[in-house]
Design goal:
The protein has five helices and four strands. The protein is of the alpha+beta class and 140 residues long. It has a four-stranded antiparallel beta sheet with strand order 2-1-4-3, with helices on both faces. The termini are close together.
Length: 140
């Protein structure tokens, strides 16, 4: 799951997306409730996913395209999607799963293992703007 930023903002003619960090470096395991909540992966919990199956971003950097191809691209991965910091900022973290037992905050909020990802994205958004920071994910 790489996090990236659009350098120079939307209004600059030279604006491009760049890979900033492979969030795998911050990962401590598969938090399936978080993957369900965010991306609809193994969604046995019944969350309404924030960003399910949006596909690979058309405007992705060449570096990210190469990384995606290295995993086999669309033929060998599933659940390819992306999520911006702006979307995460407006997320209702109190929303519950189908059973009402787990909230988004308990599955993928700032106090979970996902919190490290959100800290990186927040810092990038302070520099580049919330719409210009996104997490791209795929699963194999």
């Amino acid at each position: 799951m790489p996090a990236g930023a659009r350098l120079w903002g939307l209004d600059d003619e030279d604006s491009v997306w760049e890979v900033c960090i492979d969030l795998f470096l911050l990962n401590r395991g598969n938090a399936y409730d978080g993957l369900a909540c965010l991306f609809g992966i193994r969604n046995y919990f019944g969350f309404r996913p924030l960003a399910e199956d949006r596909g690979f971003p058309d405007d992705a950097s060449e570096e990210l395209r190469d990384e995606f191809a290295g995993y086999g691209g669309p033929h060998d991965v599933h659940g390819t999607t992306w999520l911006t910091w702006a979307e995460l900022e407006t997320t209702d973290w109190r929303e519950a799963d189908a059973s009402g037992a787990r909230t988004r905050a308990s599955a993928a909020g700032i106090d979970t293992d996902w919190g490290r990802f959100w800290k990186v994205m927040r810092i990038l958004s302070e520099i580049h703007g919330a719409e210009n920071v996104r997490l791209v994910a795929w699963f194999h």
